[in-house]
Amino acid sequence: MEIIIAPDSRLNQVSKKVEIFDNTVISILNQMLECMYNNKGIGLAAPQVGILKRLVVVDCSDKNNIKKPIKLINPEIIKSSSEISEFEEGCLSLPTQYAKVKRPAEITVKFQNIEGIYCEESFSGIEATCIQHEVDHLDGKLFVDHVSKLKKNIILKKLIKFKKKNKK
Ligand code: NI
After folding, report:
1. Which residue from 24, 19, 54, 25 is spatially nearest to 139, judged by alpha carbons?
2. Residue 145 Cα, ligand 1 centroid: separation in angstroms?
3. pLDDT tens digits along 15-32
4. Residue 56, C-beta contacts closer than 8 angstroms, at least 6 positions apart
5. Element (H, E) at 24
6. Separation of CA 130 and ligand 1 centre (Å)
């Protein structure tokens, strides 16, 4: 799997709901986790690797601790706290770029597991931020869409340069 770097129109599309829960889905999720760990990320959404399906993986566990992978199929944020928290966000699709983003501090997510069974779970702290960031990807949104237009443009320009430099 290769991570798509912004700006790229594939990152601005709305991903499709997963309807069939077969081995392909399990395999994609496992490959996404591997890709995320290899790139030292804490979250990855399928559109970032060119798959326009509503699939997300997250692992916000401390590096020294045991892995805590979370796999979310068709995640939907059904509740958000009025309390806001701010984190410096980064993204594997926006390498070397960071910005402070404000989001609800606590969320409840409805999603399906690999068997297609509906689940509901609440998240807070960095996990809540990370999941909101990944769900944004499924709707074609990046963290730079939460900052000022000026800042967004500066970051995207830097990424265009970054991509040119890293092209063979
Ligand atoms: Ni991201």
Report:
1. 54
2. 11
3. 999 999 999 999 999 999
4. 43, 44, 45, 46, 71, 72, 75, 131, 134, 135, 137, 138
5. helix 23-38
6. 8
Residue type, 84: I
Give me the active site residues, please: 134
User: How far apart are the C-alpha atoms of 8 and 23, rounded to whole Å?
Assistant: 29
d(CA 87, CA 20): 35
Ligand 1: distance of its center to the CA of 153 in Å?
A: 17
Strands (E), the chain: 43-45, 55-58, 70-80, 84-89, 99-104, 106-112, 118-124
CA dist., res. 92 & res. 143, Å (int):
11
Structure tokens at 158: 């830097």
Residue 70 sits at the vertex; the CA angle it makes with 76 and 27, to the nearest 5 degrees, is 100
* pLDDT tens track for 85-143: 999 999 999 999 999 999 999 999 999 999 999 999 999 999 999 999 999 999 999 99
Q: Which two tokens stand for residue 3?
A: 């991570």
| 98: helix, strand or coil | coil
